[in-house]
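Inputs:
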Amino acid sequence: MAVVVAIVALFGALTIPFPSLMSSELQLPVSVIAPLGLPIVLAWALSSSDPRLELGTVRRLGALDVALAVGWCGLAAVTAVILTLPGSPEAGLIAARATIGYVGLLLCARWVLPTDAAAAVPIGYVLLVSFLAGGSMRSAPPWAWAIRPTGDMASWLIPAMLLLLGAIVLWRYPGGIQHGAT
Amino acid sequence: MRIRTLLRVAPGAWLAPVMVGLLVLYVASSITFGPREPYGLYLTARAMNGLGLIVPVFAGTAAWEGARLVRGGVWGLPMTRHRIAVAAWSFLPAFVGGLIVLVVTTMAVLVPQGLVVPDMVILGSATVILLAQVALGFFIGTIAPRAIAIPVVVLGSFMTFVLPRVAGSAWLRHMSGTTLELCCTTDQVLSPGVVVSIVAISAAILIAVAILLTRRPRMGVYPVVFLVLLIVASGVAMAAAPPTQRPYAERTGTADVCETRDGVTVCVWPEHRELAPRVSRVAAAAVDAWRAAGVTVPTTFREGEVDKSDPLTAGISVRSTNSRNSLIELLAVAVAPHFPVARDEPTCAATHEWRSSIAGPYVWTWLATEAGIDHQSVDNYFGGGARPDSDYFPDAPKSLIVPVLPLLEKVWELPPPAQATWVRRNLRALAQCDVLPPLDPG
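Outputs:
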């Protein structure tokens, strides 16, 4: 988390050209890309649990997992916003929103995918945005909330809903969906 | 493992059809931004735009395979087959899936342009890059937790394609093959150094992966092996294709599709066969206008290598996107070569400072105007004056701009025979390099 926040604080406003179907390329800020590190590490943490053993525990591990995911995500988002306030506050807000949305996507994806494969979903989402969201961030459709202007309320509502839904999934199925040994 | 089993369990095999659709759409849309010429090398290079998606996705599936062997406990068992053979069978579906997507994407670019043969050197280079990154993905899958290995491989591999466009790091460009995308207009070929560099970096990755898969040293040794091999390979790559060097070389050979009209011959590359009638029509009209004004000009305009000692032949490079105006510009440059737009410098420029090149903009403007170029184009080029080239005029201040049109106004006021004499003298000066051109019409 420290590395991600440091990258956002130092380079968050820089843009990187990504491939796009709608124009030759789409310039995505680092503050959209760097938060992808958080769901990756969170997926690792969640996948290292032993679901069978945890099913028999008396402590409410589901609630603790939710607290871990949401608390961690919130801490990263707030730190990113605070650290970027003096330089590029827009980058901090973009990173905060992306963190909430990506963690939400990861938690939702655990409904259908093994936890250790679910981290590929936020990455797939960013690639999809790069390909299909159009040539500029301003004209991006609502589903590409990660790159919409930060003043757009819907672009905050969707990631918040994803996080809420993901938290419910995590609480209900703390061990994630059970798969074979594939 | 049986092929049926491989296809059933390998995500690389499942992802291939999805990727084909996405990549064909992407590459087809990206190619609309460049010229559409049936040149196999150029079209194959454009298809490599898709490499930045193919490689990360299939490297990610290879990481999945590696992680699955570890998770199943197979990777830690004693093996009768060599570990590299076991690994190769495991990441084969990812590699083959990527290769199929690469070939289909390339064909999707080539087929609409007619029967164009893909460039096997570019395809081969891309295959080597795919193999190296898939193998690296597999290796990372065997050492890192699956939850981290797959996203890190996908994202890391993707970044090797994206970052060179921002940071311009040479070895990253060679690792990911983004250099290939810069190749090549019809009068260029891929520089052999680029291929050597790509193969060197990819070979270093493959050797490192092979060593580490076989020996299984302590974790701390991994980065050392990679670092040593990458430093050696980077040295080879830098020597073969220095970062400052262009990734393409001049195409050798002579254009042999010729069309003659009113005594003027235009020869173009086979890929420009359809352009030959239009170019020859414009060339015949331009030469006719110059002759009528009393200026002797070449009667053959040729793409490719040109015999510089033959005063009746000049070099041109046409594009499918050339308008009549831009064709006149090309022909005028061919007659009055001047830096930086000249395709060929005079032979003397190899040994002398080409100081007479300052006459180029004036003679070029006179010739182009005589051949019927519109005034807007002339204005666009030299309305604000010309900047002396620093290679030939190192002492000239960078801010110096020489006015072109005011002097030409004086030339145009002369009677036609005097104008022709002024042009002839300056053309002679242009070919002699170290003389000062007689620009003053008085």
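Remarks. The first helix of chain A runs from residue 2 to 11. DSSP finds nine helices and two strands in chain A.
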